[in-house]
Design a protein that fits this description.
Layout: H1 3-28, E1 44-50, E2 65-71, H2 88-93, E3 96-97, E4 112-113, H3 120-124, E5 130-135, E6 151-159, E7 165-179, E8 196-201, H4 203-215, E9 217-222, E10 237-238, E11 242-243
């Protein structure tokens, strides 16, 4: 066998070995399968949202609310939706805010009242409570710094048998509903000295306040935000006839 044939055989063997190795490398590599992302379409509906913060007593206007897409499986029964079969936005626009609604919150009729069905003050009263008004002045109303939703203690000043003035606390942690005709505090509100404070009292507490107004001078003492929810259970006696109630309990 001459040299040329030997070279041809060697080249052929090399090509065959290279082809075999290349085919093995292709087989050993995992096949890359393109990932197909399946996006599930979420069913949505339109609900009424608050565009701005609306405090208690605010009259809802068209600029306060907006329709917004919302996942249908996250819609609660008391949300206002566009598919309720009537003009729900128009119904909301005729309402007054009973409980503050923050920006971006869904509008709920449970936080609104229809002025045709009663006043705002009766709507914000807690069950079983009464709205009782008492005269105040700068001297008896913390210099005009008491505002709606503040908590106060009520003090009675009267003369004793020796014609000396005595002061004692007769009711504590009482909620102020309104000062004169103002039932809410707004940002930037200036101090206004009111002549009448409307308080939230139980029936028994109302009797105590009425009796105190006939016996002497009533003063409102503003409580700190830090202790407005503290429980105080020490009873006070008024004329030894009525037990002063604290938080509606004797």
């Amino acid at each position: 066998m001459n040299l040329s044939k030997i070279l041809i055989i060697i080249v052929a063997l090399g090509v065959a070995i290279g082809a075999m190795m290349f085919s093995k490398s292709l087989i050993s590599q995992p096949q890359q399968v393109a990932d197909v992302q399946v996006v599930e379409e979420i069913e949505k509906t339109m609900i009424l949202l608050a565009k701005t913060m609306m405090p208690m007593g605010h009259k809802v206007s068209r600029g306060d609310v907006i329709w917004q897409d919302w996942p249908k499986d996250m819609v609660h029964e008391n949300m206002i939706t566009q598919d309720n079969g009537e003009d729900m936005m128009q119904k909301a626009l005729a309402s007054i805010v009973k409980i503050q609604i923050d920006e971006g919150d869904p509008i709920r009729f449970s936080k609104l009242i229809d002025p045709k069905n009663g006043g705002l003050l009766s709507a914000i009263l807690a069950p079983g409570m009464r709205a009782i008004s008492t005269p105040i002045s700068p001297e008896t109303g913390a210099g005009g710094f008491i505002l709606p939703n503040d908590k106060v203690d009520i003090l009675l000043t009267k003369q004793d048998k020796n014609d000396q003035n005595k002061t004692k606390t007769i009711l504590v942690n009482i909620k102020v509903l309104a000062i004169d005709q103002t039932i809410r505090e707004e940002d930037g509100q200036q101090v206004v000295v009111g002549r009448t404070a409307t308080l939230e009292l139980s029936s028994a507490q109302s009797e105590i306040l009425a009796l105190a107004n006939n016996e002497g001078s009533v003063t409102l003492s503003l409580r700190s935000l830090a202790d407005r929810n503290l429980n105080e259970n020490t009873p006070t006696q008024l004329k030894k006839k009525l037990t002063i109630l604290r938080h509606g309990k004797s």
